[in-house]
Amino acid sequence: MTVLERPATSLLPEPEPYRVLGTSAEPEPGLWTRLYRELVRGRRFNEQTTALTRQGRLAVYPSSTGQEACQVGAALSLGPRDWLFPSYRDTLAAVARGLDPVAALGLLRGDWHTGYDPRAHRIAPLCTPLATQLPHAVGLARAARLRGDDTVALALVGDGGTSEGDFHEALNFAAVWRAPVVFLVQNNRYAISVPLSRQTAAPSIAHKGVGYGMPGRLVDGMDAPAVHRVLTEALARARAGEGPTLVEARTYRFDAHTNADDAGRYREEAEVADWRARDPLTLLGSELRARGLLTGDVEEEAAQAAERLAAGLRAALGADPPLSAADLFAHVYASPTPQLREQAASLAEVTR
């Protein structure tokens, strides 16, 4: 059973998540090892960023450790003209798409900049409010269709975000307009501390696509090749004018919701241990070794690339950013008010 074998007209998701690893599926040349490299780099990114947060170099960090297969699979499925609409936990997806890791952390550092130019990278600003990026993704996709270009938007959201009105509004408009947009729900079982069972009584989040008139797909979010394959198919469907798709990836965050959260208050260590046994990095590495596709050289190269990324983060975030007090008055109004001009002049006088 695979997602790709289902009839194009079917809206109901498969009863079990689609998997590639552990089946007879043939690996795509070069793709699986590229996914592995990005998973190694992504794991180190999460580890180093978490450590820097504990050192006070970031205001907060929502780790995606355990969810790397979703993040990497999503980034690598996009074409150069496509847009990524991330949530606050999707810094790794932005990095895997090619964004500078330091720039990806600008918002979480407390910088007043987004940290990067969204248009240059085709990555929308990291979105902290839940699900508000989804209507934006639909709007961009709708505009692309009206222009007649082949751009597709991929919008990422967590299971908690599916309880927000923005989620429902976005899916409804996307289906009505047949907008070229794909929604990826990373179902990590908890909206901070609220388990999925207290958010919805539906058989799966993917089933919700039926109510909006779009296909729902269910995929193993710990299986990087499976995530990549399902999203690639959904993006191709959108690009061909066949409308949006709702994809639910069943995954798990190994760490707490953020560094400010105590996950031990709402989940048992035994549950975490069960999911750690399905670590996406371990699963893909084991499969590659069993097929003779993961050599010592590949592992060493991946590890070295990950350490270079970590060293770059330490160097950049270990230094205090250059700050100007005058920035307090910039970008508040298009034309500064008399009061702001007076305050800016007073500050300039005392800081000479």
TrEMBL record:
Its EC number is 1.2.4.4. It catalyses: N(6)-[(R)-lipoyl]-L-lysyl-[protein] + 3-methyl-2-oxobutanoate + H(+) = N(6)-[(R)-S(8)-2-methylpropanoyldihydrolipoyl]-L-lysyl-[protein] + CO2. It is an enzyme of class 1 (oxidoreductase). Belongs to the BCKDHA family. This is 2-oxoisovalerate dehydrogenase subunit alpha. PANTHER family: 2-OXOISOVALERATE DEHYDROGENASE SUBUNIT ALPHA, MITOCHONDRIAL (PTHR43380:SF1). One of its GO terms (molecular function) is magnesium ion binding. The keyword Isomerase does not apply. Residues 1-23 are annotated as: Disordered. InterPro entries: Alpha-ketoacid_DH_E1_comp (IPR050771), DH_E1 (IPR001017), THDP-binding (IPR029061). Gene3D superfamilies: 3.40.50.970. Its cofactor is thiamine diphosphate. Residues 43-304 form the Dehydrogenase E1 component domain. GO terms for biological process: branched-chain amino acid catabolic process. Keywords: Oxidoreductase, Thiamine pyrophosphate. The branched-chain alpha-keto dehydrogenase complex catalyzes the overall conversion of alpha-keto acids to acyl-CoA and CO(2). It contains multiple copies of three enzymatic components: branched-chain alpha-keto acid decarboxylase (E1), lipoamide acyltransferase (E2) and lipoamide dehydrogenase (E3). Transmembrane segments: none annotated.
